[in-house]
Structures are given as structure tokens and as C-alpha cells.
């Protein structure tokens, strides 16, 4: 059994709305501050198989934050019953629904909604469809795993070793030259470019397909 609790105060729920044992355990965890949730986290409780009346009063409750193990003592007749289970903090997010290979553009059909344990989500993970749709995979994106922002980027407009047009303009001067890209890059990326004529290496920002502008 599992119960997902959004990061809000379950003790303020309407009377009678906390009907399952998992819900009432979640409310007790919140009341005792046994686990603190961030704004985007939910609490999931999975109890080991135990037949207990859902209305049984909670006598005591312990949670090990390190392992997520839960132990509770419930008031049942003729004797109290102990129940155990696991508690986890999770985040709702979108992940690839299939393996996405380098060079592929991410589309809405490539993504699925899921929940992952907070510990499996890196600070730089992209969690919303808006952050991912239209991006190009720079590395393999595994199905069902949070996407590291470093593994995606704008669609490549310049590929390494390709010939590019170099532009440089001031109020009084405009220069155009041919260069060779030393790095891949998408719109807005700053990459290393070698001027074909002078052999000088410069930093330039990608402004279009095989087009760059020298960074001042």
C-alpha cells in the first residue's frame, strides 16, 4: 500500500478526510516534524502487509530519517499491533519515456510523468516539460531517469570542424571572415573558433546556422 502526501499540512485536512492508515501516519509524521519536506516534495508511505483497521489509533510512531524505516504501535483489540513500512520523500517530474540518443530533439511524446526519490534527483536536474521540450540531447538520456541539465542543450547550429561565417561589427567597422569551429554549440553558446586566414583562435557567440559573432 502507498499514500502520496503533497507538501502541505495534512493536520488541517477536513474532518473525516484522513481515512486510510497511511494518511493518518503521514499526518502524524507532519505533526511531529519527523520528516521535513521542501515545497516540491511529496511524502510516500509504503506499509508492509498488515491487516489493521484503518481507524486504529496511533499509540507511538518512529521514523529513521537515514533509512526511511517506519515503525508504529496501533491501538487494536484485544492487543496493540505493531506495523512497519518505509517512508520516502519524492518529487513529481517528467523523465524520458524511452532512451534518447545524442543529436535527437526532445518532443512532448518523448516524456512521461513520474515520481522519483529526492535522493535520485541532482540539483541541476531538469524536472519540467517546459525545460526539456525542444532541447537536443548531447549525451544518452536514459528512460525513467531525471535529466541532467549538462546532458542537453539548444539544437546544434555549429558542429566541430565545420566552416563558419565570422562577424564582427562596431559603429564604424564591419568585418566578415571564414573560420573553423573547434567545438559544437547551439544558439547563444560561446565556442572556440579558428580564423582560417590568420589561424588565430577566438571566442565567438553562435547567432545562427554556421554563423558566429566575435565576443568583445
Automatic annotation (TrEMBL):
Domain named SAF is located at 91-153
Keyword vocabulary terms for this entry: Bacterial flagellum biogenesis, Periplasm, Signal
Q: Which domain of life is it from?
A: Bacteria
- Primary site of residence: periplasm
Q: Which InterPro entries match?
A: Flagellar_FlgA, SAF, SAF_FlgA
Q: Which SMART domains match?
A: SAF (SM00858)
A matching Pfam family = ChapFlgA
Where in or outside the cell is it found?
Periplasm
Q: Indicate yes or no for the key word Signal.
A: yes
- Purpose of the protein: Involved in the assembly process of the P-ring formation. It may associate with FlgF on the rod constituting a structure essential for the P-ring assembly or may act as a modulator protein for the P-ring assembly.
Q: Which family does it belong to?
A: Belongs to the FlgA family.
Q: What is this protein called?
A: Flagella basal body P-ring formation protein FlgA
- Its source organism is Iodidimonas muriae
Organism placement in taxonomy: Bacteria, Pseudomonadati, Pseudomonadota, Alphaproteobacteria, Iodidimonadales
Amino acid at each position: 500500500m502507498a499514500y502520496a502526501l503533497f507538501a502541505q499540512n495534512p493536520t488541517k485536512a477536513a474532518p473525516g478526510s484522513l481515512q486510510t492508515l497511511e494518511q493518518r501516519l503521514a499526518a502524524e509524521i507532519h505533526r511531529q516534524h519527523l520528516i521535513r519536506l521542501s515545497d516540491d516534495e511529496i511524502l510516500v508511505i509504503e506499509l508492509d502487509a498488515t491487516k489493521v483497521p484503518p481507524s486504529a489509533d496511533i499509540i507511538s510512531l518512529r521514523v529513521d530519517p537515514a533509512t526511511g524505516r517506519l515503525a508504529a504501535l496501533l491501538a487494536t483489540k484485544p492487543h496493540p499491533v505493531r506495523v512497519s513500512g518505509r517512508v520516502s520523500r519524492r518529487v513529481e517530474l517528467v523523465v524520458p519515456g524511452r532512451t534518447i540518443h545524442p543529436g535527437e530533439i526532445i518532443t512532448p511524446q518523448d516524456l512521461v510523468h513520474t515520481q522519483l526519490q529526492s535522493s535520485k534527483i541532482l540539483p541541476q536536474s531538469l524536472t519540467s516539460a517546459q525545460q526539456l521540450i525542444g532541447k537536443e540531447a548531447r549525451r544518452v538520456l536514459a528512460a525513467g531517469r531525471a535529466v541532467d541539465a549538462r546532458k542537453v542543450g539548444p539544437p546544434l547550429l555549429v558542429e566541430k570542424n565545420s566552416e563558419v561565417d565570422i562577424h564582427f561589427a562596431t559603429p564604424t567597422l564591419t568585418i566578415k571572415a571564414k573560420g573553423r569551429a573547434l567545438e559544437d554549440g547551439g544558439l547563444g553558446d560561446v565556442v572556440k573558433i579558428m580564423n582560417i586566414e590568420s589561424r588565430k583562435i577566438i571566442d565567438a557567440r553562435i547567432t545562427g546556422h554556421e554563423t558566429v559573432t566575435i565576443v568583445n
